[in-house]
Batch of 2 targets.
Target 1
Amino acid sequence: MSWLYLMIFIPFIFAIFVPFIYKLFGTRIHTGWFVFFAPLAVFLYLLKYIPMISKGESVHSKLAWMPSLGINFTTNIDGLALIFGLLITGVGALVVLYSIYYMSKEREALHNFYVYMLLFMGAMLGLVLSDNILVLYVFWELTSISSFLLIAYWYQRKGSRNGAQKSMLITIFGGLAMLAGLIMLSMMTDTYSIREILSKVDLITSHSLFIPAMILILLGAFTKSAQFPFSIWLPDAMEAPTPISAYLHSATMVKAGIYLVARFTSVFGGSAEWFWIVSSIGLITLIYGSINAVNQKDLKGLLAYSTISQLGLIMSLLGVGSASIYFGYGDESSVYAFAVLAAMFHLINHSTFKGSLFMVVGIIDHETGTRDIRRLGGLISLMPISFTITVIGSFSMAGLPPFNGFLSKEMFFTSMITVIESPVFGMESIGLLFPIIAWVASIFTFIYCMILVFKTFLGKHRPEKLDKVAHEAPIGMLIPPMILAFLVIVIFFFPNVVSEYFLQPALIAVLPGFAAAGGIDVEISAWHGWNTELFMTIGVIVLGAFMYYYLRKWSRIYSYYPQVLTLNNFYNQLLAGMEKLSSKLTKQYMTGFVRDYLVYIFTFMIALLGCSLWLSKGFSFNATNDAPINLFEGGAIVAMLIAALTVVFSKSRITAIIAVGALGYLVSLFFVIFRAPDLALTQLVVETVTAALFLLCFYHLPELRKEKSKVPFKVVNLLISLGVGVIVTLIALSVNNHRLFESISYFYEDSYTLAGAKNIVNAILVDFRGLDTMLEILVLSIAGLGVYTLIKLQLAGREKK
Amino acid sequence: METSMSILIGVLFTIGTYLILTKSLLRIILGTSIISHGVNLLILTMGGLKKGGPPLLGESSTTFTDSLPQALILTAIVINFAVTALFLVLSYRTYKTLGTDDMDQLRGIEDE
């Protein structure tokens, strides 16, 4: 019995209690201390899976949710899910600890903050641990929603609201596309379980829906992981409180797309389309992000673009790695599988160094009151610890030793060079572009890393430009980034431990072909001779340093880029256009005229009933079982027709009202003919009262005018009313010839013994269906009250006049 | 009988719908009234016509017409009365307050 699914619920359970805790102790103890235990507990629990999973096993547990629909709450943990699970809970615990010092318990609505955060944590855990694609989708959208709530946490700010809306629109759009793709997958394989889908890859690759499903799922992954051109939401998401940016928008949520791509690599990988789309989008995002990051003035904006760029890097590695499936299992494929290993490695490394950098930027913001690079400078003497952490994080991101980023960056270069050395999918011609783009992007990465360190901490300190007097942060705020920075160094010195326990199992999860061999034979080492990768890194450092030195000279180039061509401008235009279009469209049919709405209702009714009558071949006509009709009855029918037509054609109110009254009396006549004495009596009474009421109001109502409407208006009305009449007649005729089951009315014929009543209808009303009648009386009294109020009471405002 | 009743009901529905689609409030009320007559007759006809005596025990007949539709219609008549009354008074009040009974002019205001 595995408690894995319980782990997903722990954050949700905590979230329920947060508001109460906040209410009880909120002013004395920071709510974060309570929340802290949720990620910590799950993290410690997940640790116990490490030995098992490092042997290449996976754990599976199942909780029936909607078994009749085949939707079960199935959890599955393997190497890939474990990495994510530990990142979510590990970084989560650190972020909560950090937020305790970052979020003021006096000023902030902490209960909202932590509820949203726990909601996200649970959703993200569910996303990576779930085996059912529909459950995965639900959690996927839940992360989007909690991200939306967290970005809009300071909802008083316009930027927060806009950023939240943008992220919501883009990620939900992708989520819906992904849902369609997932449903296609389940149609192809006839299962909702990811494990079963992965075992039926042959069915999928030969299916005609292969490409559409792939593109739809990739849309989901690319929007979530902020890949070009969907990346525009991530910089705006920086409006969220910094702990959230560190957690959702760099370490975990934006990696959900990476998770999805990795998870489905063994389904779609091996095809040229997957290879090309994933790796080229990844590379474009990589260079787009790094070039833009250099031009940022806001530290968080810089980190946002650098996150986009790093996500692109991981994505391109996964794309290149997917080629290994094309080769099957062997030496040739393990060269490509190396890229997947590098992707997983960089995933972990990125979470450590970027998490610490975000936290430091939060500290700078918190202690100086600004994140604007132009106003900062010379903080090194004031904030030495923050400076150290920044150096570690930035140099790791830039790919310098002795930090973990160096290792994964080298592995990234290796993978990109692989593409030229053993080309696939027509890579012979333009394969050289891969390492070139990677190299150029790395130069820019180096530049913005240097900006982050030196523009902030070196140079002249200008206290007059800061809102606060800068000083070092409290120790509690420094501990979380210190832990992450510590990991950055530790991983550099012991990469093979990480590789053995995390990367190889994850590799097996992504590429099951290597399961038998227990992964690929690889030794990660900092020094591997004077090879191409090392020369590339040296080139990056030399050229990067050179360009950083002359940054002021060439950075003006950015201002020449036309504003019209930015993705943000395109997004804004699209949004405005869509709002205009939809409001125009809505105004077309939402006219505010009751008749138009009735036309829609009646038209729909005619279409629906008519079509179902037509399609089910329900219409039948057989008059042989009809009751006989005599002259008197025939006369009554004709009289009714005349009365009804009189209502339509009468010019005066009184004629119309009297004609309707006559109709009512004729109906009661029919009740007599059809052996319904009670109905006849009631109808007579009601009709008399109604007629009296009509005549009472008649005095006050305006004279009936001749309808001054255009001919088309009348024609449409006539057509629709004829349609309604015909449909009703057809249905009535068909019903007469269909008896699906025997009448149940025989039960009531025993009414004397059952209810002591000789009048069956009365017995039904007051006894068998007594409750109905009681409520009917209630309706009647409410209507009576309404009538009384409308007549007697004036509007309060009117009386004052 | 059932056939001719079905046609009659169809005509009542046609006229009722046509009246509801016009612009004058009074005609709309009359239309709903006519449609409800149609509905009542429809339910009754669906139960089968003149299949036996009135549903009263202790009378001469031993077979009865279907009693269930009658019970349903009885409820319907009363509810319909309540609705018509409320509707009538509501339109009276509308006319008094707004000075028109033309549905075309009773559209909602822009951007409400």
Target 2
Amino acid sequence: MRKMRLILSLALCAAAWGGEKDSFLLRNATIHPVSGPAIQNASLLVIDGKIAEIGPKVAPRGKVKVIDARGLHVYPGLIDSGSPVGLAEIASIRETVDTGEIGDFNPQLRALIAINPSSEHIPVVRANGITTVLVTPGTTGGARGSTSGGLIAGQASLVHLDGWTWEEMEIRRGAAMQMTWPVIQTGRGGGPDLEGLIPGLAPRRVTFAEARRNQQMQVQKIQDFFDAARRYQKAKAAGEAIAPDLRYEAMIPVLDGRLPLMITAAREREIREALEFAARERVRVVLAGVRRPGKTLDEIAKRNIPVVLGTPFVTPLEEDDAYDEPFTLAAQLHKAGVKFCFASFNVQFARNLPFQAGQAAAFGLPYDEALKSVTLNAAEIWGVADQYGSIDKGKYADLIVTDGDPLEIRTQIRMMFIKGVPVDLESKHTRLYRRYMARP
Amino acid sequence: MRKNLFAAFLAALAALFVAWLPAPADSVTWTAIRDARIVTVSGPVIEKGTVLIRNGVIAAVGAQVDVPASAWVIDGSGLTVYPGLIDALSSWGLPQAAQAQQQAAARGAQPPQQPLQPQQPQQPQQQPQTRSWGPQDRPGTLSWVRAADQVQPSDPRLGQARNAGFTTAVVFPRQGIVAGHGAVVNLGGKTAGEMVVTPDAGLYLALRPSGYTGFPSTPMGIMAYFRQLWLDAEHYRQALALYASDPVNYPRPAYDRAVEGILGAKRVLLPAEGPVQMERMLKLAADLKTPAVLYGVVRGYEMAQRLKEAGTPAILNVRWPARDRDADPEQEESYRELLIRDLAPTSPAALSAAGVRWAVSSEGMDTPRAVLRALKQSIDRGLKREDALRALTLNAAEIFGVADRLGSIERGKIANLVVATGDLFDDSTRVRMVFIDGVRYLPEPELPTPPAGAPGRGPTSEEGEEQ
């Protein structure tokens, strides 16, 4: 209810001052710019959606509305570096799931175009302070292998979680090329076989040699595709007549090193192979869904390869791993000097993104790094740090106003601004909450 | 002297490779093994003595034995005589999967699976099975099947087993979850009937879920079904008795071969790989009011004390767990797995130390000789040789109630003997001959061992996927 009142008052303020919709002055708040230390009792002036001034005393310019944020905290909007939000509504209803296309190679597809701006999930994700999402096609991340959406599923798009149309949501339509490194799948391992329970449902057992051959064939497919794209690129550069092919066309920015290749690889072997591949092809690479980097960690650090971590709220991959292995992974990466950000790789639970970073902070990751991993680091990794990711003069005003630390579960998000425009924090959850609270 | 005799013998039998002494119907045939080291198992070792066999039965054993003049005498000097080895849970001498399945074609029978017999080819399902919906459909129940009725003297595996010193196997049918009655079978004989020592060694139960093809598809359902089946059997027995005493007032119970088979069971064989399964099975056996023998035991080292308290014998699976032959080289093995792998071979010593009666199964072993090699590993890990030998002989005979006829070298027992060049568990030892029912068998050429591609993890439950 208090939230409601705030928003209401905000609207009233706007009406009273009659100023621009994307300009305001926020007063008496603790500002956490992320790029620097927190500033107590400060004011923040936003003009035309951009941060104009930060400081202890800022004079209002013209007729901008003034918001008193006494006792509240201002943070940059959080960035989820991988989620199919907007592409999938209800997992079990096929018609509402648009995450991927059929086929091994679909680099020409952009996630942005398939996003449903009216998805019920979007306000829910916003409710925890997430303003920005890298919408990833074709995969739900993690160690799923290549079965969920081909080898190259398409281009991930960085979007704001607000807009009437997908065009309005766009930050960068091609932010990364989404790829999954093939996994050697023998259909064994996993849990203990409970006395050979349910033989009918057991996956067909494949010998290791056979599984490795299958995997090598997939890797070869990737290589062949890159080679073909490379030929296309050269022919085009040389001005030769060549049949246009959207797939190869879409690969040119990857081959040029302009567009990062986001490779999902969970375990050491896949990571090693992906890194070797990236070095051979001289492409920019971002590793995603890393779970057990093992000995590759040093190389990831040495080559400054950014990493997108999935949720730590999972069980360890190996039986003998420490129970907190998923919790401490981020700290381990930080210690090795790897830059990383967090992704939910999920629709319904994308809202838990801040708590992923919070969990990492509780298990050894310095707090500032945890906060960066869902703000500035993500903006840097996706190449938008000049405009997003921190509260700095000249950057867009993607802000959240909270009553505390956003990585803390009990914290409430009181206001959200995307490009300086206040965003509704109502969601299906708050509607249901009110509905059932009102029950006599 | 032995050479002369043997030459004459060969001539008489027109160069038959496997030789036996034809016994005329009314005459008494004597055979004596003289001056051999005799390991009786039931008593002390006789360093130099004689075993006298009369018509297939041990007539005398000792340092000083009077040998009749008509006896065929074998010079045993430098040789050691053991009781014939017993494989306590086997498929030797039983038809291979295909035939067994035809016999298993029964109402509600489980999909045929032979998961414990890697030597046998995978067979596609013979016919569509009707789905079972509950205990009344008697799912996977073949309790009327007797292994004794399926014995095949022509099985080539018999010769291989004899080569390793095995003279007896306890064989069980394996279809379904109530698979039928096992038989104690001698591994040589002219007819199947001659081979069978006893046709009711016990009822073989398996905990093999149907895989969603019908009730029961969970271990829980299977165990509930076993309980119901035994209750039904008891009810059936009482109904029969009432009908017999008063046919006017009591209805004639409908004949039910499934429970008929249960009523005849002297003991049940229950699967228990480790302690958890053991506890379940001990409880089940108590509920069934039938003596139990646990089979498929791998983690015996954790079960010894409890088995001793329960007085339940165990049949060890001596295919010691090993790393998958085609495992992913980067796959880390769990501590739990490594621990089981390390400690499984210590199970025999642990069971012996606790005083548990245990025997050994050839299940999953590539060759019969591998059973001895596996036990040698246990001997290296602290098992006493005499305990190992006892497990392979007298223990097995005791477990299956045939210790009055098998398992040791004593007067009156069936003359199943192994004559070897030294200690059975030494790699350099060769089996010179075995006697089964007093008939001598010489070593046969070894069959080629199965290819190394056989599944490395023991029991699998694939159904025939290849043609």
